[in-house]
Design goal:
Number of helices: 1
Strand order of the largest sheet: 1-3-4-5-6-11-12-13
Oligomer: single chain
Order of helices and strands: HEEEEEEEEEEEEE
Structural class: alpha+beta
Radius of gyration: 24 Å
Distance between the termini: 62 Å
Helix content: 10-25%
């Protein structure tokens, strides 16, 4: 009787160890990429889709700051700020553009419950929506394919171009 109990305990411990290891490595690997992405990155080099490349001149360089503040992933660069996420080798940047633009079209939108909103447009571009809760600005979502990251270099790709950043903090 004691022999069977010992085998069950060893089997249970082995299974628990394997499952714990899988969970640990899955969690640890995803967090390590996020941890490596966090920092201040300065654009250094661009490889165009046609094969040309260039070192970015000093006066054209900008910084991409990826942070985690109170559990939220925040990004900022010279022109905008917003939220970022990383999933399946895609870095997603979501922001509300800072701009002043003319609204040339208003569209009244009624839902099934009798609530009304106004859609604000400039040409074909949606600018935002005026709802009973206030103005909701149109968000801009930018996707970049993640190529590589290490302690000093970040490589992202978008629309056939590759952007190489160096870590400055």
């Amino acid at each position: 009787m004691k022999l069977k109990t010992g085998k069950r305990n060893k089997t249970f411990i082995a299974k628990a160890l394997i499952i714990s290891s899988i969970i640990f490595f899955t969690y640890n690997c995803s967090n390590s990429i996020e941890y490596q992405l966090i920092g201040n990155w300065e654009i250094n080099y661009v490889k165009w889709g046609n094969g040309d490349s260039m070192k970015v001149p000093t006066n054209d360089k900008y910084q991409l700051v990826l942070e985690k503040i109170n559990g939220k992933l925040i990004f900022r660069d010279d022109m905008q700020n917003g939220n970022w996420s990383y999933e399946d080798s895609i870095l997603t940047l979501i922001s509300t553009p800072i701009c002043t633009t003319f609204v040339d079209s208003l569209f009244l939108i009624n839902d099934d419950f009798g609530n009304s909103s106004l859609l604000l447009k400039s040409g074909e571009q949606n600018i935002g929506m005026l709802t009973p809760d206030g103005i909701i600005a149109e968000k801009v979502t930018y996707f970049m394919n993640f190529i590589d990251v290490n302690d000093s270099i970040l490589q992202l790709s978008s629309e056939g171009n590759t952007y190489i950043y160096k870590k400055i903090r």
